[in-house]
Design goal:
Blueprint lengths: L9 H10 L9 H15 L6 H11 L4 H17 L5 H17 L3 H17 L4 H18 L8 H21 L4 H16 L7 H24 L13 H17 L3 H27 L6 H5 L9 H12 L6 H24 L10 E2 L6 E2 L13 E3 L9 E3 L15
Antiparallel strand pairs: 1-2, 3-4
Helix pairs in contact: 2-3, 2-4, 3-5, 5-7, 6-7, 6-8, 7-9, 8-10, 9-11, 10-12, 11-12, 12-15, 14-15
Amino acid sequence: RKRGAGSEDPQQEYQDKLNRKGKQQKLRPGIEKDLSKLQGKLKNQEDISDARIGKFARALASTDWHTRERALSMFETFLRSSENVPSDGLRKMWKGLYYSFWHSDKVPVQQELAKRLSSLVSSLEVSPLVALAYWRAFLDTMVREWSFVDRHRLDKFMSLVRMFVHACLSRMSTHEWHPDVVVPMWDGMRETLLLANDVGKGTAITGLALHITSVFVDELEQVCSSGQGQDELPDVVPSDVLSFLVEPFMVVMCTSNSMALVKRVIEAVYAKLAKKCTACMRQIEQGEDAKVEDVSKGYPFVQIDALLMAKELFDVAADPGTNQHNREKIYDVIALVEQLAEYQRGWGLAEGSSAPSTPSADGSKPRKKKKGVVFKLQNNEVFRFHKRDAVTVQKSPSAHKPMKSCARWA
């Protein structure tokens, strides 16, 4: 093939580059020596000095592709076999990972690397603390470096953020939305979003908050739909979990001075949830005439507690400390959410009853409602996600009783 000619198959071109005709590229003597020593320490689970971590980070950020590839493979092996990783050291390594992704060229290479980095969030099972530290180190790195991303590389970093959000939600779904996983993982996201309100940081972080807000609902729906057959309905997000996931965006909408960010929260979170949920319930009402693929759109959100959400927003809007421009937008959202609440009241969802049966793929028999993930509790106990200091299980008169929100701590 002539030099400079485009490849017909970009993925094959990436594999050819990865293989290099089966020959391993020799590294420079200094880098080869440092990586060999570091590999021995990682294999023996020995403590790594700050100087060694710095050299490892430089290898991850090297301009040589083979150096970065070898260092990245060592990094993956290290995380998968570790039970605890210092947060400071992981942040330094993420500095190298950031520039490793910065140096990646062409879409297939970028997508493959983004997939490798993000998959660690959902696949690290040796210790939950390692996955949590890795997720928080990624968020800290994006907050620190987002303002330095130029317009030529903005698309690939936005794709990286989308994949990490998907991996975070996928880990929660894999663990059946258990509070021990959901609360610490999403608290990192909450802290990142609220940085948009900090003086001196808001201008740089607003772009990151806008992108996270835009992809949240779509990625959550994809996570619930993954692994389902053609004639199967997606999983349903429990109502208290969905309220907890939406809460950071509600706080941003109620406190942010950026009207662009407030408008994005309204359109990409509240309006999209209400539209998807309403359309799904209308499809279910058709009974046997409805198709499974039509019902699946928005089905993960059918347990949303719109009435509780409207009450929370009204309490925040009535607070004297709320800015007037935020209050006007909140009332617009309340009107939107109340319409969904009225629709749910017609179904009896406000009182905790289940949704009607959904159609089967062939339309022969009504399909029973696929239950969402529920915790195996006794005596009508429900998790209270808003107990952030210590996640506990508390008694409730009804297993479907909405939890009390604390949205105004911001």
